[in-house]
Amino acid sequence: MRFRASIKDVNTFSKLAASLSSLGHVAWVRLTNDDVRFTIIPEQGTQVWAVLSIDNLFEEYTIQSAAENNTINLEAPLAPLQRALKSALSSISTSIRLTKKDNIPLLSLTITTTSSYTPAPAIPPRGTSSATQSQARPSDSTTFFDDDNAAGTSFDLSSHHRPPRDTLITQDIPVRVLTASSVAGLHEPRCREPDVHILLPPLLQLKAVSDRFTKLADAAKSSSASALSSSGGTTSTTFARRRGGGGGGGGASTQAAGLSSNNQRGPRLEMLANMHGGLRLSLRTDALRIASEWSELANPDLDPAAVEGAEEGVARHPSTVMRGRVPDAEGEEGWARVRIDGRDWGRVLSVGRLGGRVIACFCHELALILYVYLESEQEGGEDSVLTYYVQSYSA
Amino acid sequence: MPVLKFALTADAAGQVHNILTCLGKFSDSVFIEGRHDRLVLSALNPSRSGYASFTLDKSSFFSDYEFASHRGRVDGRFTCQIYNKALSSVFKSRLADTRGGDTALERCEITVEEEPYKVTCRFIVKLICRHGVTKTYKLTYESIEVMQALFNKSAAHNVFQISAKMLKEYSDYFAPKAEQLDMYAENGRVTFTSFTEKIMDGKEILKQPLHTAVSVDVKDFEEYRAEEKAHIIISVKDFKAIVAHAESLGVALRAQYSHPNRPLQFSYTRGGMKCEFTLMTTGSSQDSAAPRLTEAVEWRADTRSRSAPSTRSESRSTEMPRSLQNQPIASRNTLRQRGLGSVTRATPHNSDPEADSLFVPLAEDDWRWEPLEEQEPEGDTLGWDASEEQVSHPRYTVL
Q1: d(C-alpha B23, C-alpha B29), whole Å
Q2: Name one GO cellular component term (chain B) (predicted).
Q3: Residues of A in contact with B163 (CB under 8 A)
C-alpha cells in the first residue's frame, strides 16, 4: 500500500480541512486512481461527502494498493490535518505520503520553507523606555550584566546578508487504515427529488445573517430562562401570558420543560426557498420573529441528460411543478421549507471560505442538500464537489 | 520603615507584567528576592524540573530603588512569595498603554513593609496615573526562603544561540497538546521534534497529537557549538513560555548545557533585565560519558568577541545529588515513566524525596555530597544557591 503526492494547492487543502473539521473530528478519506474523497458522518448533524479531483489538490500523485482501482481507505483526524497543513501555508513545497512509524500508520507531510526571518536591529516592541534607560546609563548595565549574553543589544551585521536557507518541517498525522469491508456499509444518503433548487447568495453573507439569528435565539432563550429562575413563582404567570394566556402555572411548567430540552440543541432556523429566485431565512422564538429574504437568485435549469426520463422527467420533476406555482407572501404556497439547527448550519456555511458556487436543494420538510462546486484551475479539468446533507427537523 | 521600596516607569511596569505572565507558566506563586543592587523574580515548577528567574537591575530597570538591610537578615536579603495571579492582576497588560484612556499609568511605586512582630506583611503597589488618579493595592505575602537553581556555565560546553523570533516560528508548528521537545543535531542540521509519549491503540490513536519535526540549518543559528548526535529533551510547555517572552523582547536566546539528563539553561538579557531559565533535561547521547568534542559542530555568526562566561555563581556550585549524576541515560521509551526531571529516587544520604531534584533547601547549605563519578567530566555540576556571599551561619529566621 503506497500513497505519495506533492500538494499543489496547500491553501485550498488547508481551507477544506478547516471547514470539514468544524463538522467532525474524523474523516473517512478514500484515495483512488481517479479522485480523493472526504466523508464525514457525525453522530448528529450534517454529513459531508466531498469528491475532489486529484489535480485540484495534488501533483505527482502515486497510489498503489491491492484493492480494486488502487483504493486506500483511511480514517484521519481533521484537526491535526488542518494544523499540519497550516504550517505549510508559506512553504516552497509540500509533499504527503502514507508511511508507518513504530507500527502506527501515518500521513506524513514534508514541508520545505525558507526562513522568513531576517535579523533586524534589535528593538523591542515593548518596554523601550527601560531599554533606553540602560543605554542612557551604559556603565550600570554593563557592569551589572557582565556576562556572555549581550545578544539583545548587539547584532552581527553580517547576518543581514545571509542567503536564505531551507527549513524542513515534518508533520506526522496518525491515521487508521480501513479495510474495504469496513467501509462497504457506508453509503451516501438518498433523498427524493428536490422541490426547489436555488443558487445561494455569497455564503459569507448568509453566514453572517444566520449566525446573528442564532445568537438572537440564544439571547432570547437565556433572558427568558434567567427570568424564570430569578424571580420564581411570579414569572410563571408572565410566561403563561406570553404564550397566549391561559393556564398559569401549568403553562409555565411546559415552557420550562421546553427550555431544558432546548439547551441540548441549537436554536432552530427556518429556511424557505421557491423556484422564483426567493430565499427566506427566519427565526421564531416566544419573544421575537425575524426574517431575512433574498430575491432574484438563480434557479438553475435541470440538465435533461441527468434526469431519469430525460425531457419528460424534467417536466414531471417536483421543481418544475413548483416553478408553476406563484409563491405567496406567507411562505406557504410555492415554497419549500426546512428547519435546521442554527449552530450546525453555521458550521456548514464555513465552507464558504473555499469560495465555490453553491446550489441548495430543498426537499420540503425533509432535507436540505448543498452542492459546493470548486472549479478546477485547469482548463477542462474535473470539478470538485462537496455535498452536504442537512436534515430538516420537525416543527 | 519599609524594607524595600522601588519605583517603575509605565514601560517597566509593563515588563513586569510580561515577566509575571511567563513565571505563571511555571508556578502559581512567584518568589521575590530583594538585594541592595537588584530584585529577582523567580518561579520553580511543582515538579522542580524547571526554574525561571528574572534579575532586574537596581539602576537600569528601576527608576528608583531603595533597600534597607534588614536586621534579621545577616545576608542582606529580603525574600518572600506572592500568589502570581494576585500580583499580575495589578500589573495588567495594558497598563502602559497610553491609548487606554485618560488614566494611563505614569509611575508605579512599590513598598514592602516587613514587621515580623505584627500580624501582616504588606506588599503595597501604588499606581500613579494621569489626572491625579492613584490606585493602591495592598497584597499580603508569605515570608519564605527562596531557592535558586545553580547552573555551572563552565561545564556547559554545548552552546547555541538563535533569535527567539525564529524559535517562535518553529514552536508555532508544534501541536498545542504536544508534551516534549527533543533537540538533536546531525550533519549540520538541528532538529526540533515535538512529540507526546502516549501508548494508545485502536481508535485512540487518532487522538495522538501531531508529531512535528523542524529541521534547521545550523547556519540559521547565530552561534552553534554543540555535540552532535545527542538528544536533549525538555518540556514543550516550558520552551513555549520562554520563547514567547524572549520573542516579545526581540532578543536572541542562548542555550547552554553539558549532557542529556543534565540541566540546560536558556538565557537572554535586555534593558536591565537578565532572564535565566534552568530546565532539567532527559534524553540520550551516543556516548554521554565521554563526549567526543571532535564531533561538535561549531558555528558562530557573530564575530564580535564575547566576554568570558560569568563565574559569579559557579564558584561554590561543586556539589550535586549523587543520584542525579548516576542517572541512567533515558531512552525515549522510558521517558514517560521517568517524567521530565521529576527525579524521585532517594539519595544514599537522605530520604527526603526532594533532595535529589534540581533544588535543595537552603538549610542544607553545608551538606556535602559524594565525590563525582570518575567518568563524569569535572565541574559539571548542579547545585543550589541562596546567596552570593559566602556565609557559614544560618541566614534567616522563619517567621
Answers
A1: 8
A2: checkpoint clamp complex
A3: 117, 119
